Each structure stands twice: as C-alpha cells, then as structure tokens.
C-alpha cells in the first residue's frame, strides 16, 4: 500500500532524512517511534506530499507521490491524516469541519455528507457536540473529531502524526481507544507515537528512527523483546521505565 | 477671543453635510476596493510564483514609498490621459485611493494570512482540498477574522486620508469646510469645527476597534 | 495617447533648481520634525506606561487627540487658528515677524502628529517586555526610575527599531502635506513643473524616483541600526 524507498530530505544544508526505506502493507499497522528530532514527523508528512523530499521514491496504492505532475490533491483525498495539534478549523462547527471536504472534494451532496458526519461522530462518541466550535471542546474531544474528519473521506489508509502528544494524560486513552478500534477493523495505519502500550497492542511492525535514519524495522514482538541496536535499547529503557 | 461666530456652521450645515457624505462615500468605496485588490496582491506575493510575487512586491513597495498627495496628482494627470477623456474628480480620486490603499491593505492581509498556522493548511491539504479551496474556506476566513480590528483601523486612517483630496479641490468635508472658512472669513471657527467632527468620528471608530480587540482576545 | 515626451525638461533651468529646492525642503521639514517627534513621542509613550494615573491619562489624551484628527486639519489649525488663539502680541509676532512661518508650522504640526504615532510604538515596546521582567526588576529592589532606565527602556528601544523605520519613512511622505500651507517641497515642486511645462509624466516620475531613493536610503540606515541593537536570542532576533 505505502512504499518508501531510499528517501532523503534536506532543509538547506541540514539533512533531516537519510535513505529511509520501509513498507506498509494493506491492513497493516506500523508504528514509527524514536527520540524527538529524529525525523518521524517529517517522514510521515512526506507520504502524502505535505513535505517535499529531494531524493528517493514514495508510492501509495500504486501512485508515485514524488513524481512531477502527479495529482497530490487526489492522493491526499484518499489518505486520512491526523495531526498532533488536531488542526480542526476553528471558524467552523464540528459538523462543518467534517462536511467541508466531503462536499468540496468528493462532491457529496449536503444530505449525504451530514448523514456520514453524524454516523462517524456517533461512533467516536461525539454526536452531541456536532454544533459546537472546536474551541469549546477538550483536547481529547477535538482529536476524536479530527479522526472522524479524516475517516469521513473513506480513506484507504490513515496517517497519525503524534496524535496524543499534545493531550493531557487523562485524555490520551479516549483517543487511543478509537485508534485501536480502527486497527481492529483492518484499517491500514502508519502511526508516529510515543505510546508503546498502543504499539504493543495493535502494531504489526515497529519502525525505530534516530537522527533522520531508520535504525530498526521489525515485527513488534521482536522489537520489544529483543531490540538489536543500542540506540533502540536506550530509547526503550528511557520511555518504559517511567 | 470674544468675537468668534459659530453661527456660521449652522448657516452652512447642508453644504457641510454634503461634503461629509462625499468623504464617507469615498472612504467606504476605497475600503472595499482596497481590500479586494489588497487580497489579490497578498495572494500574488504569497503564491510562490516568482513573476507574480515580484510584480506585486514591487507595486506594494513603490506605492508605499511615495506620498499619497503625489499619487493623487499622478492619477489626476494619468487617468484622463489614459482614458482619453476626463471622468470627473470623484472617480479619479476613487481610483487613486483604491490603488494606493490596496498596497497598505495587502500588507495587512499578507500578515493575516501568515498568522494562520501552517498546520491548518496541512490539514486542509490532507483532506484533498486544492490550493484555491484551502485559501477560500480555511485560510482567508481565519485570516480576515484575525485582521478585522486592523482593517477597521486602516479604514479610519483612510477616512483621515480622504481629506487630502483638498489638493485637487474635490468637495469632501475638508474642502467644503475650507470653502466656507474663506467665503465667510471664519477660518478659526471652521477649522476647529472640522477638527472636532473628524475627531468625533475617528475616536468613535477607535473605541469600536478596542471593543473588537477585547472581544477577540477572550 | 497624445503626449509630448520631453525628459530633458527636468534638467533645464529653472526646473532642475526647483527640484533641488524641493528636495532640500523635504529633508529640512522631515528631519526637524523627526527630532521633535522623537523627543515628544518617547516622553508621551513612556508616560502612558507609568504607574501614575494623571500622567498616563494626559499622555493617553495626547495620543488620542493627535491620532484622530487628520494631519491636514492639524496643519491648518497650527497655521490659521493658533495665531488667533494666543495672546494678541504673540499672535501679531507670529503673523508678521516670525521667520519662515510655513516651515516652522509644518515642522511643529508634523512633529507633534508623528509624536503620537511614535508614542504608541514606545508604549507597545515597553508592554512587550512583559510584567515578568518588570516584576523581577522590582523584586531586585530597583525603583520605578531604575527599572525604566536599566531594564524596560534598553530592551523596548531595541524592539521598536523595525516599526520606527516605517515611521521614519512616513514622516518623509507626510512632509508633502506642507504644500497645503504653501511650502514648496518636493511634491509641490513637481506639481508646479507639471503645470508650467505640461510634462506631468516627467515631473511626477522625477518626484517618485526621489521618494523611492529616500525610502531605500532610510531602510538601509535603519537596517544597520537594527543590526547593531539586536539582542542575541531575544524575540525578533535571528
């Protein structure tokens, strides 16, 4: 489904990604982890072309992301993305947040879009907040709405960029629960996160990054049971011993 | 000090009101036009397309380095020449003000657009909205919301600026006050009156801006 | 378009002389008014932030008054109205004996008007430093005067260098309003040349080019000032 090959990216002279290669198969859940500044967020933003990269190749469902002239808009409409800071549109109600792209991009009519919106909000337990503005919601609620907004497009895969790092601790689980549910339904997911509990529970594979490079890319059990690199061991000991 | 005659104002009130109406109309139309062209200029500058951003940038910087009076003189000279016929003082002034203020509005709007967080643009793009949809539904509505107080402030400045049509004798409030002052020989009364009227309108406007700012920070 | 081009007109007598005179007056008005505006503007701006209620009220009133009346009206008030409002002897002196009345009036009007704008920048700069640092200074045992002298003013003056650049440019542009009371500065001279020669295009182009040069010059000067006053790692620094 998602193939990344030898991807490299520079900001000016500074190299943020070095020869990254990995794959996400259809129905697979891959967690990307690593210390901050290791390039995880940059990598995932390259997948739907939000960040341009200079070298390498990315393809999603057979479509070349980095090729000149490829229709990124069309690709993005098929991949859902969830952001660290939610990025709900603050000037619109929850309903409008979910309906906008359904109507303007997919061309659904108003009734279809609203019906879909209501169904999705029901599912994440946010139906009663449909007329509120994002500013009136808690972080956890906003993130659940943001996930619904991405799902409203009937995506073939979902990208999560640190979906719980901006949340207060007591709200993390309500968001993770929704994500676990999604994974169990067979959604293809690429998730940048520090939530190792989540990774253990649902991830098929873990990709560990450090300093812009992919250091380990292994099945979940192996990664947690027997990390190969010192850097991964070091990272795991810091993150698990709290 | 004893021989001031403020009755001169009452006697010429209809004439003065006509002048004030023209000032307000010119302000209103120039604000609309200025925001319209200012938005286009700002989008051109931020488009990332070099010829467009260079063109808009040059225009904005050029206009911002010359005095409004000189721009008014330019357009009074150029517009009839370009059109081959005079189109009247009011329209010449309106064109001059619109194009002049567009440069200032574009800087405000550009800052407003840049104040919208990049994550919002990413979120919009991630759901497949294209460039124009992203600008139209996500960026510009938020930008304008952030900008409303500054836009109103610029509107007040524009209202004050309209007094400069005095230099081409277009009969706005300032010119009309000056005509009354001279024909009646009552310079002191008329100019104090003009100052009070401008002050009342602009001060009320700036109080309104302060309320807007308070409302938006809560 | 039916137009007789003649760029040479700009370099013939007396028009070249007019332009040069105009530039000189523009600089004379703008620079003198800038000095006045800086002195008054800084005093008023600092005054607005002082803990003393009457002082901050007076300074606020000054800013509101000067900001909310068009500069053109202020120019006329100083020129036509002020001599009538002062004691008779003084009014007579202003009207009969004061040297260069247009120039003096233009400098006062433009200077005091610009002072209200500078005062706003100064106040914003001081407020931007924030209550945290102010409290830290008071906690250190500094008096109000010392806090301003050693902490607030040095930081805020650096912060307001960029907005002051645009005020510095604005004062050159606004000096053109002196033409309304008969001072033949650059804009007035170009208009006069346009009227005498019918070569409006050339005349206005000359004035425009000169104003653009002034703007570039002022920007460069202020950028240098900005570089020297920057605080490493503080907001606005790069």
Description of the structure:
The complex is a heterotrimer of chains A (242), B (218) and C (238). Chain A is an alpha/beta fold and 242 residues long. Chain A has helices at 40-47, 72-78, 94-104, 110-123, 139-151, 169-184, 196-202, 220-225, 230-240, and strands at residues 2-11, 14-24, 29-33, 55-60, 63-64, 79-82, 157-161, 189-192, 205-210, 213-219. Chain A is built from 9 helices and 10 strands. Chain A starts with a strand and ends with a helix. In chain B, helix 3 (50-65) packs across helix 5 (89-115) and helix 6 (118-126) packs antiparallel against helix 7 (131-161). The longest helix of chain B is centred in the N-terminal third of the chain and has 34 residues, at 13-46. Chain B is globular. Chain C is 77% helix and 0% strand. With 238 residues, chain C is mainly α. Classes of the chains: A alpha/beta (242), B mainly alpha (218), C mainly alpha (238). Chains B and C meet through helix 3, helix 4, helix 7, helix 8 and helix 9 of B and helix 2, helix 3, helix 8, helix 9 and helix 10 of C.
User: Which residues of chain C sit in consecutive blocks of at least 5 with pLDDT less than 50?
Assistant: none
Distance between the termini of chain C: 50 Å
Task: List the uncertain runs of chain A.
Answer: none
Estimated share of beta-strand residues of chain C: under 5%
The largest β sheet of chain A comes out as:
6 strands, mixed
**How confident is the prediction overall: mean pLDDT of chain A?**
92
How can the largest sheet of chain C be summarized? none
Gyration radius of chain C, rounded: 22 Å
Topology:
The complex is a heterotrimer of chains A (242), B (218) and C (238).
Chain A: E1 2-11, E2 14-24, E3 29-33, H1 40-47, E4 55-60, E5 63-64, H2 72-78, E6 79-82, H3 94-104, H4 110-123, H5 139-151, E7 157-161, H6 169-184, E8 189-192, H7 196-202, E9 205-210, E10 213-219, H8 220-225, H9 230-240
Parallel strand pairs in A: 3-8, 3-9, 6-7, 7-8
Antiparallel strand pairs in A: 1-2, 1-4, 4-5, 9-10
Helix pairs in contact in A: 3-4, 3-5, 5-6
Chain B: H1 7-11, H2 13-46, H3 50-65, H4 68-83, H5 89-115, H6 118-126, H7 131-161, H8 173-184, H9 187-217
Chain C: H1 15-49, H2 53-67, H3 71-85, H4 88-96, H5 101-129, H6 131-139, H7 144-159, H8 161-174, H9 186-197, H10 200-229
Helix pairs in contact in C: 1-2, 1-5, 1-8, 1-9, 2-5, 3-4, 3-5, 5-7, 5-8, 6-7, 8-10, 9-10
